[in-house]
Amino acid sequence: MNRGSMIERYTLPEMTQLWSLENKFKTWLTIEIAAAEAMNKLGLVPDDDLKNIQQKAQFKVDEINEIEEKVHHDVIAFLTNVAQYVGPSARYIHLGMTSSDVIDTANSLLMKQTGKIILASIKSCMAVLKSSAYKYKNTLCIGRSHGIHAEPTTFGLKCALWYDEMRRNLIRWEGVIETISVGQISGAVGNYAHLSMEVEAYVCKKLGLKPINISTQVIQRDRYAEYLSAIAIIGSTLEKIALEIRHLQRTEVHEVEENFSKGQKGSSAMPHKKNPIIAERICGLSRILRSNAMTAFENNALWHERDISHSSAERVIIPDSTSLIHYLLVKTTILIENLEVFPEKMLENISLTHGLIYSQSVLLALAQKGISRENAYEIVQKAAMQCWNTKEDFQDILKRSMDFTSLLNNDEVNSIFSLDKFTANVDAIFSRVFK
């Protein structure tokens, strides 16, 4: 797997080390030794042989790879290499077990371990979003629907919404870690024909996993699909954040801007460019997470008790998705933490439509004076369309309308054309989000 040096800078050392071949085989060996210990307790492995296994069992990745070139089976290559170091006592390794007992239980442990790294990254991202939400709690900016100016909101509310969604991701991810934290030592087709269920219980307890209720030689891949789906959902949240920042950095908008470091260059042709490259990268890479999740769905349906059509894909999608979501969480956290925010430009953009943002306020005020909503809508829309066409101030146009001035006095008009209402409930919303 080639993640590229860019991503490795943010996945090293923990994430990359966890998915290394060295650590995979180390995890396999831990499972095999634990199984031998359990069988020793059952009287199936003599004490001296267990001691030999515990003291001598080791491997070398290069030697395993060399053996696999001949046997075309990674677990057999692994066991053959370990036996070369253990000697005759190796006959008690993998006793009654099947390859998936080792592979799937190891996958569960590795996914649990990487899951905890991702969990910490989610929490770090949430902390920065919370800080930004409070910093810009009452910083007015225009809200948009269909890309068109709607009514004012605050930039703090945007950040609070992202935080709230990330909290759901946190809860979802905690549940996914629980779902994946299962192991199996159940043998061919999963019926324990050549194994005691006590072996499974011992191994799982030692690894911090729960014995699976039932398997068919493989741990069922709905668990993997849930795991990778949760990653894809987290990625979609990060894409949502990045996409908003990309829009807000557009030259015509320019309400926020990615940090542009000293010496950074934006374009090979145009020296003036300051592009939202991190946000664009987040949007692009999140698509990979969704495609990997789709592959996980395809892996759930296998022939009968098992086949290995899932195996090759999982060697790519699981390390890639876990490493990638960790990277994207780190980059999003840095993006938000160092984001340049321009409150003055936000206020300037609020005024771009010459007061049209108050159209609903006018509509409601007229309706409260006793005229029908349909008539009120007609009065407001007529003035609004004139404002769109002439760029004249919306309030000035309305003040020339007898339908408007006959119903509302100056104090009422001033109240209508006030920004205060758009921040009146911010505290209440924050109390719900950050309770």
- Second rung of CATH, namely the architecture of the largest domain: Up-down Bundle
Instruction: Describe the main β-sheet briefly.
Output: 2 strands, antiparallel
**Order of helices and strands, N to C?**
HHHHHHHEEHEHEHEHHEHHHHHHH
Helical percentage: 55-70%
Q: Helix segment count?
A: 19
Highest-level CATH class of the largest domain:
Mainly Alpha
Tell me the Rg in angstroms: 30 Å
Structure explained in plain terms:
- The mean pLDDT is 92.
- Helix 1 (5-11) packs across helix 12 and helix 11 (277-298) packs antiparallel against helix 12 (309-337).
- Helix 9 links the parallel strand 3 and strand 4 (210-211).
- The protein has three domains: 14-95, Fumarase/aspartase (N-terminal domain) (Fumarase C, Chain B, domain 1), CATH 1.10.275.10; 97-259 and 269-347, Fumarase C, Chain A, domain 2, CATH 1.20.200; 356-416, Orthogonal Bundle (Ribonucleotide Reductase Protein R1, domain 1), CATH 1.10.40.
- The chain is built from 19 helices and six strands.
- The strands form three sheets. The protein has a two-stranded antiparallel ribbon with strand order 1-2.
- The relative contact order is 0.11.
- It is mostly helical and 435 residues long.
- The protein has helices spanning 5-11, 14-18, 21-41, 47-56, 61-71, 74-86, 99-135, 155-180, 197-207, 222-248, 277-298, 309-337, 343-350, 359-367, 373-390, 394-399, 402-405, 410-416, 426-433; strands at 140-145, 148-154, 182-183, 210-211, 256-257, 340-341.
- The two termini are 42 Å apart.
